[in-house]
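Structure first, sequence second, as always.
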C-alpha cells in the first residue's frame, strides 16, 4: 500500500450513509444528534443526552472565565447525574456532539467548546477523556434564538480491528523520513 494511491472511492462510499433531505431544522438536528457512527460500528450501550444550556468556550486565557466554567461543569454534572458511570472505565468510546447555536450566540471555536464540555463529562459520564477513540464535533448554526448541546455517546469498536484480516501495518514511506523533534528544538 502506498499513501499516494487514495482515490475518490472512500468519499463516495461514506456520503451515501447520510440523508439527502430533511423536513426542517429539527429533523436535521435529530438526525445528527443521534447519528450512528459508521466509523466505530458502535453498539449498545448508547446514550443521547440533549442538554439545554448555552455552550461555553474553554479559552487560552482561562483565569478570566474560570467561574463561568466551574458553574458550567456543575450544571452539566447535575444534568447527567443519573448517567454517572454509565460507561465502564476501560471501554473505548465514540462521542458525537452537536453545539446548537442561535442567532444571539457569539460564535466560538468548536475545539474550545468541546474542551469545556469534556471537562464536565470526564469523571462523570465516563472515567477519562483518553477513552474517547473517536470524537465528532458539529457546530449547528441557525437563525432562531435557541442554544443547546446534544451529546451522543456509545461504545466504539474501532480499535478492535475486527474488520481487518491481517492485523499488521503494511505500508511504505517512500522518501518520507521520520520527523525528529530534536532537530527542531
Ligand atoms: Zn465513531
Amino acid at each position: 500500500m502506498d499513501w499516494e494511491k487514495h482515490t475518490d472511492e472512500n468519499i463516495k462510499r461514506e456520503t451515501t450513509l447520510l440523508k439527502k433531505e430533511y423536513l426542517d431544522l429539527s429533523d436535521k438536528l435529530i438526525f445528527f444528534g443521534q447519528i450512528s457512527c459508521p466509523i466505530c460500528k458502535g453498539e449498545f450501550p448508547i446514550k443521547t443526552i440533549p442538554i439545554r444550556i448555552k455552550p461555553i468556550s474553554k479559552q487560552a486565557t482561562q483565569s478570566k472565565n474560570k467561574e463561568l466554567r466551574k458553574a458550567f461543569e456543575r450544571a452539566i454534572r447535575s444534568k447527567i447525574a443519573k448517567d454517572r458511570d454509565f460507561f465502564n472505565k476501560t471501554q473505548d468510546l465514540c462521542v458525537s456532539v452537536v453545539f446548537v447555536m442561535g442567532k444571539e450566540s457569539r460564535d466560538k471555536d468548536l475545539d474550545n467548546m468541546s474542551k469545556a464540555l469534556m471537562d464536565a463529562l470526564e469523571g462523570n459520564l465516563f472515567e477519562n477523556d483518553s477513552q474517547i477513540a473517536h470524537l465528532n464535533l458539529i457546530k449547528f448554526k441557525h437563525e432562531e434564538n435557541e442554544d443547546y448541546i446534544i451529546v451522543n455517546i456509545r461504545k466504539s469498536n474501532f480499535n478492535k480491528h475486527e474488520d481487518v484480516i491481517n492485523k499488521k501495518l503494511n505500508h511504505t514511506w517512500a522518501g518520507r523520513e521520520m520527523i525528529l523533534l530534536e532537530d527542531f528544538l
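Margin note: The two ends are 33 Å apart (CA to CA).
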